[in-house]
């Protein structure tokens, strides 16, 4: 990414005029008069996100504009379309029109241009999004978000054919997190940090889920499938005029319906979108919002099936990666990854991070116990 700043510095008015014209749906001449750029996030895997903003004159009327540039770069191990890390997946989602025809469900941001800079680099230009409602969102807002996910994914449960694109992940949650390895916390319970992060019987519940993973995965494979986003984190969701817009489609996959509830429910709990005393009410409300979305498009199957898929996906995904992170930080208390966890959990200091993380782990453990009763 060393030359990305140089390329941004070298942007010319003609290119930006084309971008701004598409952004504004302008049929008249656009003259870009000034612009600047800045880093939004450095990203991972050689990627980065930047904001380009400035001023323009559209048919003698001065206006301000801003757009987002997402830089995709090929890594050493993400070239194969079937790989969960396929570097061009988001470009292919855009080109395929994957969400075309979705009227009342999830949508994508407006893509202004796709620039294949080189064989190993692509730039995606997007409109910049802003939420109508600031975080934290109310439970009612999360319910509506889940309902829009249900409307989108429910179409596949009532007859819409699943797409056959080779670049869509298949079995990613199972493959990636089974290979990630067991939580492995039983021998770590003597560590003070592990004891704080896994209160009560939460450690045992997480370990029990892993020990019986084959039973859960057998049920997971039998469930009805849909296209999934798999990264429906609060930072990737925007509400505009009541319509949900989701960004970052790098993990677009075919997974059992309900898998995206992992981020919508458990992710929101970990990220302090809901108060601790309201966790269970929040869970029930958002889950029923998703079911309502499925019903909106004509699906009236067994809710327990969808519930189990949510529970399995959440426990498989989070019991492994969070346990691994906990072990790492227990061994290396000064590791800078504490800052990453604080960002993810929306906390201010290490002590608050531990408390919030522990609340999330307790909530996850209760979901693992529920999965045991349902399977």
What does this structure look like?
- The protein has a five-stranded antiparallel sheet. The protein has a three-stranded mixed sheet with strand order 6-10-7. It has a two-stranded antiparallel sheet with strand order 8-9.
- With 375 residues, it is of the alpha+beta class.
- 46% of the residues lie in helices and 18% in strands.
- It contains 13 helices and ten strands.
- A hairpin with a 2-residue loop joins strand 2 (48-58) and strand 3.
- Helix 7 (202-211) packs across helix 13 (350-374).
- The model has no long low-confidence stretch (mean pLDDT 93).
Please bin the fraction of helical residues. Answer: 40-55%
Task: Give the spatial strand order of the biggest sheet.
Answer: 1-2-3-5-4
Top CATH class of the largest domain: Alpha Beta
What is the total number of structural domains? 2
Specify the number of helices.
13
Average pLDDT, to the nearest integer?
A: 93
Tell me about the biggest sheet? 5 strands, antiparallel
CATH topology of the largest domain: Aminoglycoside 3'-phosphotransferase, Chain: A, domain 2
What is the H/E string?
HHEEEHEEHEHHHHEEEEHHHHH
Distance between the termini: 47 Å
Globally, the shape reads: globular
- Examine the secondary-structure arrangement and name the CATH architecture of the largest domain: Alpha-Beta Complex
* Structural class computed from helices and strand pairing: alpha+beta
Uncertain regions spanning at least 5 consecutive residues? none
Approximate strand percentage: 15-25%
Give the number of DSSP strands. 10
Based on CA atoms alone, the radius of gyration comes out at 22 Å
């Amino acid at each position: 990414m060393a030359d990305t700043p140089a390329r941004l510095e070298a942007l010319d008015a003609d290119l930006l005029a084309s971008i701004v014209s598409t952004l504004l749906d302008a049929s008249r001449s656009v003259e870009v008069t000034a612009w600047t750029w800045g880093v939004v996030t450095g990203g991972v895997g050689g990627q980065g996100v930047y904001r380009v903003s400035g001023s323009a004159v559209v048919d003698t009327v001065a206006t301000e504009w801003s757009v987002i540039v997402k830089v995709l770069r090929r890594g050493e191990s993400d070239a194969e379309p079937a790989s969960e890390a396929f570097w061009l997946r988001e470009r292919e989602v855009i080109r395929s029109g994957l969400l075309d025809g979705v009227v009342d469900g999830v949508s994508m941001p407006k893509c202004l241009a796709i620039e294949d800079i080189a064989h190993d680099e692509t730039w995606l230009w997007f409109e910049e999004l802003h939420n109508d409602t600031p975080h934290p969102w109310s439970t009612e807002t999360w319910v509506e978000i889940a309902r829009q996910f249900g409307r989108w994914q429910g179409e596949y449960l009532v007859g819409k054919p699943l797409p056959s694109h080779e670049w869509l992940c298949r079995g990613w949650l199972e493959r990636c997190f089974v290979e990630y390895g067991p939580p492995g916390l039983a021998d770590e319970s003597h560590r003070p940090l592990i004891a704080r992060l896994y209160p009560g019987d939460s450690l045992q519940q997480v370990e029990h889920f892993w020990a019986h993973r084959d039973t859960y995965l057998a049920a997971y494979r039998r469930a009805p499938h849909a296209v999934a986003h798999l990264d429906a984190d609060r930072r990737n969701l925007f509400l505009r005029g009541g319509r949900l817009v989701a960004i970052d489609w790098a993990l677009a996959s075919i997974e059992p319906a309900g898998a995206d509830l992992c981020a919508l429910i458990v992710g929101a709990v970990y990220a302090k979108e809901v108060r601790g005393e309201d966790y269970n009410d929040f869970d029930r409300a958002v889950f029923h919002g998703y079911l309502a979305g499925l019903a909106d498009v004509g699906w009236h199957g067994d809710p327990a099936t969808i519930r189990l898929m949510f529970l399995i996906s959440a426990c498989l995904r989070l019991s492994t990666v969070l346990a691994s992170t906990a072990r790492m930080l227990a061994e290396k208390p000064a590791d800078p990854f504490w800052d990453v966890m604080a960002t993810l959990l929306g906390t201010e200091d290490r002590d608050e991070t531990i408390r919030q993380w522990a609340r999330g782990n307790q909530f996850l453990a209760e979901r693992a116990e529920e999965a045991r009763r349902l399977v």
